[in-house]
Structure formats: structure tokens, C-alpha cells
Design brief:
Distance between the termini: 37 Å
Low-confidence stretches: none
Helix content: under 10%
Structural class: mainly beta
Strand content: over 45%
Length: 123
């Protein structure tokens, strides 16, 4: 199983980025997918999660109204559209896959993790 995250970069505050995470080696539609991030010197935190068919979605409060998670099961890919970025959004962003229908909430109990993509927001 491989999760390949991409799309990170350097952006000014107020800007936008779109992250992608492509999965291989799994039946993608059987996996709940999540985004997490880890800022320098901080613990990894939950960002967003999307259910098997993309209907059920949840976000950490700090990104609600700014970030949008989505998935394309035909392409085995999830996305994280990040708008109105703030310096505090600076982190390495990871995608993760969790098998089955049991909703994880903000838990980090996922089976597979990608390698991360760095997002830097300058003030």
C-alpha cells in the first residue's frame, strides 16, 4: 500500500494551496481517508476526514470554512483545498487511510500513512 502526498509549497498568508494524495495497492473505496499535520516542535494533529463515498466529512475547528476535503474514488485520490492560509497552518501534511466504515472522528488510528508534504505559509 502506498499513499503519495503532493502539492505542498510556500505561499503567502491569505493564499491557497491544493494538496493531493494518491493511493495504490488498495481498494480505495473501502477506506476512510484523513489529513493530518505536524508543525515544527508540535505533535501531529487531525485536520480533516472523509468517508467512503465522500458524504460524511469532518474538520478540526481551526480550518473549518477555509479547508475542503474531497475524494475521487475513480482516481484513488483525495484532495485538501486550503484557502485563506495562515502562518499557523505551516506544517508537514500527511494523508492516511483507514479500512472500513467505523468513523474515526479525530483519532489517528489509521492503517496507512503517506510520507508528508510541507506547507509553509509566510506572513
Amino acid at each position: 500500500v502506498q499513499l503519495q502526498a503532493s502539492g505542498g509549497g510556500v505561499v503567502q498568508a491569505g493564499g491557497s494551496l491544493r494538496l493531493s494524495c494518491a493511493a495504490s495497492g488498495v481498494t480505495f473505496s473501502n477506506y476512510i481517508m484523513g489529513w493530518f499535520r505536524q508543525a515544527p516542535g508540535k505533535e501531529r494533529e487531525f485536520v480533516a476526514v472523509i468517508g467512503l463515498n465522500g458524504v460524511r466529512i469532518d474538520y478540526v475547528d481551526s480550518v473549518k470554512g477555509r479547508f475542503t476535503i474531497s475524494r475521487d474514488n475513480a482516481k484513488s485520490t483525495i484532495f485538501l483545498q486550503m484557502n485563506s492560509l495562515k502562518p499557523e497552518d505551516t506544517a508537514v501534511y500527511f494523508c492516511a487511510a483507514r479500512y472500513g466504515r467505523s468513523w474515526p472522528g479525530d483519532s489517528s488510528n489509521y492503517s496507512y500513512w503517506g510520507q508528508g508534504t510541507l506547507v509553509t505559509v509566510s506572513s
